[in-house]
Amino acid sequence: MPTPWEAVVSEALIEARDVSVTFGSGSRAVRAVKNVSLHVDQGEAVGIVGESGSGKSTLARVLAGLQRPDSGEVLFAEESIYQRGKAYRGDKRRLVQMVFQDPYGSLNPRISALAAVAEAVRIHGAGTRAEATSQSLKLLAQMGISERDAGKKPRQLSGGQRQRVSVARALSAQPAVLLADEPTSAIDQSAQAQLLNLFRGLLDEGLSIALVSHDLGVIRYLTQRVYVMKDGEFVEEGATLDVFDNPQQEYTKKLIASIPGQDLRKAQS
Amino acid sequence: MSASAETSSSANVLVEIRDLVIGIQRTRSDRLIIVDSANFDIKRAEILGLVGESGSGKTMVCRSLIGTLKRRSASIFGGSIVFDGMDLATIDERKWRTVRGNRIGYVPQSALTGPNPVMTVGKQIAEAVRRNRRRSDKNVRGRVMELLDLVHIRRPEIVYDQYPFQLSGGMRQRVMIAAAIAQDPDIVVADEPTTGLDVTVQAEIMKLLREIRSEFNMSVVLVSHDLALIDEVCDRLVVMHAGTCVEVGSVSDVAREPLHPYTIALNRSRIDIATPGAPLVTIKGNPPAVGEWPAGCRFAERCDFVQQDCTIGPNPPLLEVRKGHWSACLHADALGGSGE
Amino acid sequence: MTLISAGTADWFDVEGTVPSPKRARRLKDGTLGLIVGLSMLILLLLLGILVPLLSPYSIDESIDIPFLPPNGTFWFGTDGLGRDVFVRVFSAVYLDLGVAFLGVLIPFAIGTVVGIGLAVSRSKVLNGVVGSIIDGINAFPLLVLAIALIALLGPGLQSVVIALSLTNWARYARLARTRAQVVKQQGYIEAAQTLGYSKPRILFKHLVPNVSSETTAYALSDLILVILLIAGLSFLGLGAQPPTAEWGAMISDGRATLQMAWWPVIFPGLALCWAGVSLSFIAEGLTRRERDVKS
Q: With an 8 Å Cβ cutoff, is B327 touching chain C?
């Protein structure tokens, strides 16, 4: 497992204050994110749940440093990440990594899984090429990707495997926070379960995770706190189990009522 | 499948699938079998769930029900699909044109293109209405409006002239459902109709499917990998693994007493009933790849209850272990009660 | 396409591609075509070297017996000026193929660079201006533009290459730009950013290879078209000038006397077809191999 990252000053690793993002201009402007504030503390898993069009993916990209907000601040370890120029300058860049929604697009189709991870490993410090390769193979093995599969190109791997390669690549930077945007959406149930177990293991090791998803089952399973997002705003937030058992807002209630199979859960509890 | 008659009267059974074998003829001598002996019935006005991992063959079974196997270079190598006196496994394309859409409708996966992107919604549903029939234009437009209304699309007059890209995913699926039921078929095959859609939209689509079942007496074959969904929406279900049906029964029977280790494993690995923080149960291993099926039971390698005789001999057949409840597990009886 | 047939298109089973059966080392689909195409091309290239080298007759030499039908000495007969058709046909190999190659390589290089440059540039002005130029050029059929330019530059193979370089690049640029815009949005490019890769690395190791794979494929099929284009222009008298031995020019020369002597026209024509077909096989073979997924 990668060595633990340096201790960070404050509790809140990532903090967003009053962030807004608007696309387009004039009468066709779309306010994707409206005055959103949140925080992700060290060692916790936070969920952002919302349906399509809620703005959650845009929000995730803002936190990752890929989308500059039109107003508001994003702080990492109490320091604003959007200074002039690049986001997450210098050393800070590697500490926040992202796993993207589409496993079919998150890997360069022309290079093998091993090459993709080894590149990241080398950029972040490993010595020789051989060392990078062996480190990458180890990391991939921990993600459940065999040496044989590591040599394959993305199109020869299943969706679940591609996601795990993406996670391995993200982890090679030894981040403090992992932002996951719908990591389980494009893969089938057993691959989902494997990926979630992986995340759970990483949480146990001290990684912080911000999970963006429309799948409430996944959110309920993995996260301690959750923000419910609709039309660019948070309509409810709190401890995950509280929000699920006692939703306060109409929208949250509607969301939870739509989850299939809940009769079974009610019968079990 | 045992010869014992169904408990409900056979007038209730619309389709009988027996020993269906589907595969691809790669070369003159080489065949790749994808579905090896599928066995189940489709009853009138029931919602039947078809569940399995990718590679289980469930999509091929769907295609055989609407006769589009040829487009994927697949063929039926054995068995029968008896529907209204016809064997769908043997009819030619000309006959299929009278069945497809007319007697058996189809709703495709939501994640794919679905509606033809260059035609307006109204035109496409009109085409579905008019298929193989002659109707005056006035009648057709009226029927299209009626259908749009049936699938609860608000402002049908406006949607009629819109293009698919102007609609949300949920609305597009409603359009596909409207087209599927346009000619009042007996059966609608819905292949993962809500995969990728938001959960509230999914709930509405499921509600819609239930409505078309009760109001129009249509049967729905719902294919999904989401067990929770199948449990909630379906009356009976068919579980497929590595090309075979391993369990068939009513949802309540199967939930109360699953009779196949695969079903048990699937249930155990559901995320929605998992305890937060505890490790998720996964089914170990992967389903055997098409063409690489081992001898004996194909789930044996991943099975928690495997015994000596499970790995030898032919693939275990589907047998009626309880009334109306079939299992392909040699030791189904011993399992009784071990499910959760 | 009705709704139903549209819905059941062949892109089901995203996860489950049917793997190849368990046969020891099956050849990738398309390998046969590739081998056939390459063999045909290599044969042509070899003959293109050997024939002029070993032939007792040069391409300009006339034996003063025009329209001699194919016989034991002159395997392809002689043309209207008594020249040996056989040696002329094969002398044209490197000329035709070479010019075609240049006529594709230069536009490919210019177009790919411009296209990618536009896609990554943030300048709206640049995109607007150059984009309009590209669209403008692409609005015209290539042949028409080429002819117009050659009319200005004067006929000759040099002019052909210049004309092509000035016009064909726009097609590559459009392709490269669209492709680059798509690739830019892909997850792996964004991942490269979050992983802190340098801009040059992202550009040259991730963006460019994924764009040039498309433009290269296009270039291959373009090559076939350009060969025909050059022969066509020469046929019209705009390309190779007499007495150059070039397939299109040879066909043009022999056209008037086709009735009585077929060989000065048919043999260069066959050589042209041979070249085109061999390249087609190669292109098709490569595309199929790209698509073939071995499990």
A: no
DSSP at C202: I
* CATH number of domain containing C94: 1.10.3720.10
Which residues in chain A are closer than 8 Å to C14, comparing Cβ atoms? Answer: 159
**Contact at 8 Å (CB) between B328 and B247?**
yes
Q: How far is B152 from chain A (nearest CA, A)?
A: 18
**Worst-scoring range by mean pLDDT, B64-73, B241-250, B268-277?**
B268-277
Distances (CA, A) of B249 to A108, B96, B230, B267: 45, 29, 12, 15
Answer yes or no: is the ipTM higher than 0.90: no
Q: How far is CA C177 from each of CA B122, C174, C181, C182, rounded to the nearest angstrom?
A: 36, 5, 6, 9
Pairwise CA distance, residues B38 & C191, whole Å: 44
- CATH assignment of the domain containing A198: 3.40.50.300
Report yes or no on A153 lying in a domain.
yes
Query: What burial class does residue A267 get, using C-beta atoms within 10 Å of its C-beta: 0-12 exposed, 13-18 middle, 19+ buried?
Result: exposed
Q: What is the DSSP letter of C26?
A: P
Q: CB-based contacts of A99: which residues, under 8 Å, 6+ apart?
A: A106, A163, A166, A167, A170, A178, A179, A180, A181, A183
Total number of domains constituting chain C: 1
- Locate all alpha helices (DSSP H) within chain A, ordered by sequence: 56-64, 113-123, 129-142, 147-150, 159-171, 189-204, 216-222, 240-245, 250-257, 262-268
Q: How far is C184 from chain A (nearest CA, A)?
A: 11
In a domain, C36, yes or no: no
Superfamily holding B13-241: P-loop containing nucleotide triphosphate hydrolases (3.40.50.300)
C230 occurs within a structural domain: yes
A267 pLDDT more than 80: no
Instruction: Give chain A's domain count.
Output: 1
Could you list the residue range(s) of the whole structural domain that residue C283 is in?
53-60+74-291
C98 within a domain of the structure (yes/no):
yes
Cβ contacts of C22 on chain B, cutoff 8 Å: 291-292
Give CA–CA dist A37/A18, Å, rounded. 5
Which chain C residue lies closest to B106 (C-alpha atoms)?
C4
Classify A45 as helix, strand or coil. Answer: strand
The identity of residue A30, as a single letter, is V
φ/ψ of B150, rounded to 5, equals -60, -35
Residue A6 lies in a domain: no
Amino acid at B186: D
Tell me what the pLDDT averaged over chain B comes to.
86
State residue A28's pLDDT score: 85
A-chain residues near B202 (CB < 8 A) = 258, 260
Diameter over CA atoms, chain C: 76
Does the residue A232 lie in any domain? yes
Q: What's the mean pLDDT when you consider all of chain A? A: 87
Residue carrying structure tokens 């209630």 = A253
Q: Which residues of chain C have pLDDT under 70?
A: 1-26, 292-295
Chains contacting chain B through 3 or more C-beta pairs under 8 A? A, C
DSSP label at residue C63:
-
Q: What is the domain partition of chain B in residue ranges? A: 13-241, 258-340
In a domain, A154, yes or no: yes
The gap from C-alpha A265 to its chain's centroid, in whole angstroms, comes to 27
Rg (CA), chain B: 21
Interface test with B, best of A190, A249, A254, A259 (most B CBs within 10 A): A190
**Residue given tokens 């030791």 in the structure block:** B331
The string of pLDDT tens digits covering residues C89-115 is: 999 999 999 999 999 999 999 999 999
Q: Which of A88, A106, A120 sits opposite C187 (nearest CB)?
A: A106
| C-alpha closest to that of B61 among B84, B88, B85 | B88
How large is the average pLDDT for residues B166-188?
90
Q: If you search the block for the tokens 């292949």, which residue do you land on? A: B191
